[in-house]
Specification:
The protein is an alpha/beta fold and 281 residues long. The protein contains 13 helices and 5 strands.
């Protein structure tokens, strides 16, 4: 959510809502306007400026943020205690169904324009930096590998080591940072997003909520569902979104993508990376 772009009364309204989300989530539009010291029409215009159809839609997002905040503080053991299933009632198909709902719910929040803008950023950037930590690291690693197969200038930011400082120093306005951050939101991911903002990079955030730490700094926010039936976050919706982004970027310049894939395959062949089809077992 690019809240920093809003000035005057709109900026004042956004600042109050972000800093007092628990209050703003449940007041009527009139009550909230009185609290902020502005008008109901200003709140309506603020919602429109942030891309919402109306105030109610914006407020639902704030309520969702409050729900998400609960999970940012819950320990894994506490999440397991709140799980809707137990060893007697759980069936593996339930987990599949749960993730399919996560994927569908995420799909419903992504507009065509938002997706195309993200693809344009990723295709045109001088350098694409991909960052994720803990259980999101595997998603970031996957995306950096497949993107690196279709275009030059793709780097996985090594947030798990001190080497990340060398990558951050290279950030510039022609670059894009794609960061993946789900609750509990990792400080390192937020800090590298701050560095990207300072450098003028375009920022794409894949996160649990637009008002998450990295979401507030991003130019483009993809809000993904991440609830699982156990103590950990589900990466299913995140991975499907990354698949779609990589596919769309490859299709931006099919000839160039194919040329790079061919070159990468020749290197892999010289190094005998893959098992031959007639390998003895």
């Amino acid at each position: 959510m690019a809240c920093g772009d809003l000035k005057g009364e709109k900026g004042k309204a956004v600042k109050y809502i972000v800093e007092n989300a628990e209050v703003a989530a449940f007041l009527s539009i009139g009550e909230l306007a009185a609290k902020i010291g502005t008008s109901t029409s200003t709140l309506t215009r603020t919602a429109a400026a942030l891309g919402y159809a109306n105030f109610s839609e914006m407020q639902k997002d704030v309520q969702n943020y409050i729900r998400q905040q609960l999970h940012t503080t819950l320990l894994p053991t506490e999440r397991m205690e709140r799980s809707p299933v137990n060893s007697e009632s759980f069936h593996f198909r339930d987990s599949f169904d749960w993730d399919m709902k996560n994927i569908q719910s995420t799909l419903n929040t992504i507009s065509e324009d938002l997706f195309r803008r993200a693809v344009s950023y990723l295709h045109e950037a001088r350098q694409v930096y991909v960052a994720g930590i803990r259980t999101q690291y595997s998603c970031a690693s996957f995306f950096s590998i497949v993107m690196g197969q279709i275009r030059k200038g793709v780097s996985l930011v090594p947030l798990g080591s001190d080497l990340y400082q060398e990558w951050i120093e290279q950030f510039c306005p022609e670059d894009v940072l794609l960061g993946i951050s789900l609750p509990r939101y990792a400080r390192n991911l937020f800090m590298v997003t701050q560095e990207a903002e300072r450098a003028g990079c375009k920022i794409i955030a894949i996160t649990g909520n637009e008002m998450s730490p990295s979401g507030r700094l991003a130019d483009i926010v993809f809000q993904v569902e991440y609830e699982s039936m156990s103590f950990f976050n589900s990466n299913a919706a995140t991975m499907v979104l990354l698949n779609a982004l990589a596919t769309a970027v490859a299709l931006c310049d099919v000839e160039s993508s194919q040329k790079r894939l061919l070159a990468m395959n020749k290197i892999a062949t010289r190094w005998n990376v893959f098992c031959p089809q007639d390998v003895d077992v």
